[in-house]
Structures are given as C-alpha cells and as structure tokens.
Amino acid sequence: MKHFHGTVRQERALDAYVKLLRAADTVDSFLMSQLEPAGLTPSQFGVLEALYHIGPLCLGELAHKLLKTSGNLTMVVGNLQKRGLVTRKRQAADKRFYLVSITEKGRKLIAQVFPRHVERIVAAMSTLSPAEQKSLAALARKLGTTVAARYR
Amino acid sequence: MKHFHGTVRQERALDAYVKLLRAADTVDSFLMSQLEPAGLTPSQFGVLEALYHIGPLCLGELAHKLLKTSGNLTMVVGNLQKRGLVTRKRQAADKRFYLVSITEKGRKLIAQVFPRHVERIVAAMSTLSPAEQKSLAALARKLGTTVAARYR
DNA sequence: CCGAAATGGTTTAATATTGAACTACCAATC
DNA sequence: GATTGGTAGTTCAATATTAAACCATTTCGG
C-alpha cells in the first residue's frame, strides 16, 4: 500500500500489517511448495502434522487449531481418509464427535517429510539472528493473541 | 508445534515461524471478515484496492503484486467484472496484454470501505507501541525479502 | 421425562487456488 | 518472411474455503 497516504499513525500501522502478511505469505508458500513432492496440500500437511505430534483429535479441535471452519475440515480429512492416511471414528460416549487419528501409513509419510521441513524453516529463519527471531516471535505472539482475544 | 522437540536452534526457528503465521492469519481473517458486508471476498478486495491506489494494471502485474497465479486472477477479475467493478481491455500495442481498470462503481465502493478498513488496521496494530510496530515491520521485511530472493 | 436450546458435523453453493496443458500473440533469427 | 521460441492469458481438473442451511445428538429447564 505504498500508494496510500494517511497520517503517520496510519502509515505505520499499514506498513507493519502489510509487511507482516507478505513475509508470512512468502515464507509459507515457499515451504508449502516444497511439500508437493509428498503429494500433500498445505491443509493436508497441517492436519497430519497435528495428529502426528499431538495425537488423535476430533474435527472441531482440528478446525480450531488450524484456524479453519469445520466444513473445511470435513473435506480435508475426507481426502486424507481416501488415501488411507487417517481414520475417522465415531465416539461411543458422545456420538456427535468424530475422532480423527493418523494411520501407520500417515505416520510414515510425516516421519519422512517433517525433518526436511524443519530444516527448511531453520534455513529460512536463519536470515534473522537468534535474538531477532525471538523478538519477531514475541511481537507476533503479542499481536496475534490480542487480536484473537479482542474480536472473539 | 509445541509438541515437537528438537534442538534449541530448531525450536527457536519453528516458534518464530509458527507465531508469525498465526499472527498474520488471525489479523487478516479478522480484517477480511469485516469486509463481508461490502460483498467483497479478500481477493476481490485486494485487486480492487490495488487498482484504486496504483491505477490500471495488467493481469500479470496483479498476480505478481498479490502473490497469486495468473489463472487465479483470471477468475477473480472475472467475478469483479461481472459485478461491474472493473473493466478488462485488450491492449492495442501488444494484444497479449489485458489492462484491468477500476470502474466508477468500484471506485465508489472502495472509497466507502477503505477508510474503515484502515482504522481497523490501526486499532489492531495498536496493541503494539509505535516502536514495536516499526520493529515488527523491519523484521518481517527482512525475512520476507530474503526468502523471496533466495528461492526465486 | 420432554420439549427447547445448544453442540458437533455434514452438505451445499459459491468463490478461490494451484499446476499443467493450451491458445494467441509477439519477437528474433536465419 | 517462415520457423522457433518466449510471453500473457485462459482453461481444466482437483482441492480448498467459507457461510449458511441442515441433521443428529446431547443437555438443560420446566
């Protein structure tokens, strides 16, 4: 938005906003493009990674963690299920819940893909010094949690 | 990725990466949800805003600015055109180019929506002090440009 | 208990998004 | 000036994404 002119206050906020979004977008699309050889879309990777590291989750929890709608998760989990990477099981206690678990096949896939993914993140972030990385994390966290809480 | 355990170096990079993405996602989805009453999707708003502030652009330039593919822009611009918010004109000089311009109707819509949008950005960013906003912008910029340049 | 409200998921319709194949046009070279 | 190659956009098939309507189940107030 270099072509917008407002008050100092506005331009400062806009500038930080735009640069934040662009950085996130650039880093993320690079990382996600590297996942393609595994045949995983970004969303599919997100679901599998969560199940791999956290354990079985129900659809609503997945949706909450990935900041997506439940309708979306129905589709993404469906596609993972088709490929035998996850299972979906109706809970006996409360039949409204569907527990999603990663299968052995899914586990193997993530185990194969994740280490390289982490190394690419390290490489990408290494542009920033350790102190800068911590600073960025703290600022982003403060911004994200405040906005999330304010407009809940 | 609180459930991943690696080296200090890895966890620092992952933490910064995750918090960056989540902050961007949270702020952006809040802002974009506020645009719905205008009947604009995030992408449509992005295109319209660019045309409004920069002037007429061809499809490739729009794709580059919005970090999207040309195929995507064909669709988004098509939907904006259906609603009479932009026009698409074949260039005489080089007939491969299609120049996209905002119409008076589109201009009015953005003029009506944009000021509130800016104020919401200011409000969201105001969690951070002016110095923190500048710091965040600088760190995000450094990260984004380096990653974009490295993996071009 | 029972009917009403709340909750978890699915479905539906519309738009978005991508990569890849394809079309139209331009440019350069021989 | 025809072939060759490159560039701008479109089309296509598949997945993603959302909001809204809907279905099933549970919970709660009376």
Structural features, described:
The structure is a homodimer of 152-residue chains. In chain A, α2 (42-54) crosses α5. Chain A has 152 residues and is mainly α. Helices cover 68% and strands 8% of the residues of chain A. Chain A has 6 helices and 3 strands, in the order ααβααββαα. In chain A, strands 1-3-2 form a 3-stranded antiparallel β-sheet. Chain A is globular and about 55 Å long. Chain A has helices spanning 8-33, 42-54, 59-66, 70-82, 104-125, 130-150, and strands spanning 57-58, 86-90, 98-102. Chain A binds a DNA duplex (30 and 30 nucleotides) through residues 36, 41-44, 58-60, 68-76, 79, 94-98.
What are the main properties of this structure?
homodimer, 152 residues, 68% helix, globular, DNA-binding
Strand content of chain A: 5-15%
The general outline of chain A is globular
SS-based structural class of chain A?
mainly alpha
Total of helices of chain A: 6
Order of helices and strands of chain A: HHEHHEEHH
Largest sheet of chain A: 3 strands, antiparallel
Oligomer: homodimer
Low-confidence spans of chain A = none
Order of strands in the sheet with the most strands of chain A?
1-3-2
SS elements, strand count of chain A: 3
Helix content of chain A: 55-70%
- Return Rg of chain A in Å: 19 Å
Q: Report, as a whole number of angstroms, the end-to-end distance of chain A.
A: 27 Å
**If interface size is counted as residues with C-beta under 8 Å from the partner's C-beta, which chains form the largest one?**
A-B, 54 and 54 residues
- Overall pLDDT level of chain A: 95
